[in-house]
Amino acid sequence: MKNKLYSCILLCYLSLGYCLADSDTVPYLYVLGIAQDAGYPQAGCYKPHCLHGWKDKELRKPVVSLGLIDPKSKKKYMFEATPNFPEQLYELEVEAPTSEYEFSEIFLTHAHIGHYTGLMFLGHESMGATQVPVFAMSKMSEFLKTNGPWSQLVSYQNIAIKPILHQQEVDLNTVKVTPFLVPHRDEYSETVGYKIQGPNKSAIFIPDINKWNIWEKSISEMIKSVDYALIDATFYANGEIPGRDMSQIPHPFVIETMQTLQHLPKSDRNKVWFIHMNHTNPLLNSESPESKHVKSEGYNIAKVGVKIEL
Asked: What global pTM score does this model have?
């Protein structure tokens, strides 16, 4: 009887050990930034909500970016190249050291300042990188190739542009990444979101989009189809920027998104992670009444350092 019990305990132990070892190979997203393109606090803003950030460095928020870390292939990736690229690359290095993980590729969503200008740090004035693969849609690729200083990154071979297509999967072995077009202010390029499919779970990343009701797809149905949804939360509500016509910057307000998704069960609403918040957005303050309300409704608010297993 003792031998049988010992065998059972040993089997459970070995099984647990296997599971723990196996969990070490699961790829995951690592949140590197959560703010809108200009970061928090924003340049030139000296109002009370920004002064907190200027006076206390701990309150500052870097621009929206995700790391993707794959322990199995020993590779790491970034979504977006932001003005905070140096510190975000460092945070990725701390989480997944270059001694163990190859920095493999960068995925871009579009040509607004918070999403691609960090590429400059790959240039010869800074890192002097060699052919870092940069995935971009056709208009985004053409923009980089034909406009300085980005064209210099191409001619100096600091970056190697890799074309991607709407709904065409990019195979990263353990993880599959699929871009999809979304409506946005496309002055210089088209705009995409990404579906990121791991071996166990999937996520969508849509940091920028116009109002949900002008998109041909249903955000509710898309959320149902994945395990995580990191979506545009630029503004919490209308009137957030006094004296400015907010219809000219038509992001879905957080309260509109919550209304759109209110019919979903809490299990689906819990998949949502609000990200890409403007310096005026009260969700940047985790203790604000708005933050507490959003969380009470079952939603999540992205924070730097959050890890999302795929």
From this structure: 0.90
